[in-house]
Amino acid sequence: MNAETTDGWFDPDATTFGDRVAGARERAGMSQSELAKRLGVKLKTLKGWENDLSEPRANKLSMMAGLLNVSLLWLLSGEGDGPTSPEDEGELSRDVADLLTEIRDIRAQLSRSTDRLGRLEKSLRQQLKEEAVA
Fold first, then answer.
1. CA-based, 20 to 30 A from 44: which of 31, 64, 116, 124?
2. Range of the domain at 80
3. SS (H, E, C) the chain
C-alpha cells in the first residue's frame, strides 16, 4: 500500500486496486496466505493482484469483496463501502473478530454458491432448448 490520505486512510483518487486489496486484507486481519487460501488461488496470484500486475476474474473479485467486507465498487474504484478506518473502530474482542470472520466466510460461500447456481441454470436452459429443437 502506498497511497493514504493525510488523515491516514485511503484516498480513492490516489490508491490502486492493489492498494485497496492489500489495505482491506490488512484491516480484516488476514495474511496474504490466508486470503489466497480462502479465495482458492495461489499466493503468487494474490501477490500479483496486490502489486497491480494482474486482476482477478469477476467471481474471485466478488468473493474477495465478501471476505474483506467491502463493496465490489470500492475494490474497483475506491468509491462506496470500504473498510472502516482505524479511528472508526475500537479494538475488537477475539470473540467478535471470530464472529466477523465466520460471517465473511459465509458471505464468500454464498457468493460461490450463487455463481454455481447461475452456471447450472444456464446449462439447464441450454439443455431444455436443445430438447425442444429435437
1. 116
2. 17-133
3. CCCCCCCCCCCCCCCCHHHHHHHHHHHCCCCHHHHHHHHCCCHHHHHHHHCCCCCCCHHHHHHHHHHHCCCHHHHHHCCCCCCCCHHHCCCCCHHHHHHHHHHHHHHHHHHHHHHHHHHHHHHHHHHHHHHHHC
Cell 493482484 belongs to: 49
Distance of CA 81 to the CA centre of its chain: 12
Residue 78 domain flag: yes
| Lookup: cell for 117 | 447456481
134 residues of the chain, pLDDT tens digit each: 444 433 445 666 678 889 889 988 988 888 999 999 989 999 999 999 999 999 999 889 988 988 888 888 888 888 877 776 555 455 667 788 778 778 877 877 777 788 888 889 999 999 999 998 87
Do the beta carbons of residue 118 and residue 110 sit within 8 Å? no
Q: Please give the Cα distance from 118 to 15 (Å, whole number).
A: 33
Give me the number of domains the chain comprises. 1
